[in-house]
Amino acid sequence: MNPDLDLVLERIIRAPRATVWSAWTDPAKLAQWWVPAPSRCRVDRLEVRPGGAFVTRLSDDGAVYAPNLDACFLLVEELERLVFTNAVTSDWRPAIPEPVAMTATVTLTDHPDGTGYRVLVKHGDPESRARHEKLGFAEGWGMVTGQLAAVAEGLAAR
C-alpha cells in the first residue's frame, strides 16, 4: 500500500468466506448491498472472471436508474480475491470515470470470527486519492461494506 495513492478499508464479517464471496459474485445478492441505502442498485452485467464486465446502475426512487459503475475485472481468485477497475470499461475501452479512476482489490481471508474483509483502492495520483477521500470514501465504502456484512451474516444465519 502506498499511503499517498491508496485508500483502504478493513472489516471482520461474521460469516464464512464462501458466503461473503457469494454475496459479492451473485448478481441478486450484490444488488442488495452495492450502493449506499436508501439508493437501489441494478446489476446489468456481472461476469466474475478476468476481463469480465462489472456494470451497475443506481436509483434514488426505484423507478429511474442511472449509470453507476462500468468496470471490468482484472483478476479473480475464487474465495480469495477480486480486482476490478473503472479505468477500463466493461467492453475494454479506456475510460475517464467520475469521480475518479481507481483499481480496487477485495481480499477475503479466514478469521476466527468469520471473514477478514479488506478493500484496497488504488489511484493514479495523490490528487485523485485526496478527491476520493474528500468525497467520502470511508463513509461510502464503509456503508456498503456494512450492508455487505448484513447480507452475508443474514445468509449465514439461515
Order of helices and strands: EHHEEEEEEHH
Number of strands: 7
Distinct helical segment count: 4
**Biggest pleated-sheet summary:** 7 strands, antiparallel
Round the Cα radius of gyration to an integer and report it: 15 Å
Kindly report the oligomeric state of this protein.
Answer: single chain
Q: Ranges with pLDDT <50 over ≥5 residues?
A: none
CATH topology: Alpha-D-Glucose-1,6-Bisphosphate, Chain A, domain 4
- Structural domains: how many: 1
Shape type: globular
Gap from first CA to last CA: 37 Å
State the gist of this model:
With about 160 residues, the protein is of the alpha+beta class. It has helices at about 15-25, 25-30, 125-135, 135-155; strands at about 5-15, 40-45, 55-60, 65-75, 80-85, 105-110, 115-120.
Topology diagram in text:
Layout: E1 6-13, H1 17-25, H2 27-30, E2 40-46, E3 53-59, E4 66-77, E5 81-85, E6 103-111, E7 114-122, H3 126-134, H4 137-157
Antiparallel strand pairs: 1-7, 2-3, 3-4, 4-5, 5-6, 6-7
Explained architecture:
The protein has a 7-stranded antiparallel beta sheet. The protein has one domain (6-157): Alpha-D-Glucose-1,6-Bisphosphate, Chain A, domain 4 (2-Layer Sandwich). The mean pLDDT is 97. It has 158 residues and is α+β, with helices and mostly antiparallel strands. The chain has helices at 17-25, 27-30, 126-134, 137-157, and strands at residues 6-13, 40-46, 53-59, 66-77, 81-85, 103-111, 114-122. It is built from 4 helices and 7 strands. Helix 1 packs across helix 4. The longest helix is centred in the C-terminal third of the chain and has 21 residues, at 137-157. Helices cover 27% and strands 36% of the residues. 25% of the residues are buried. The radius of gyration is 15 Å and the shape is globular.
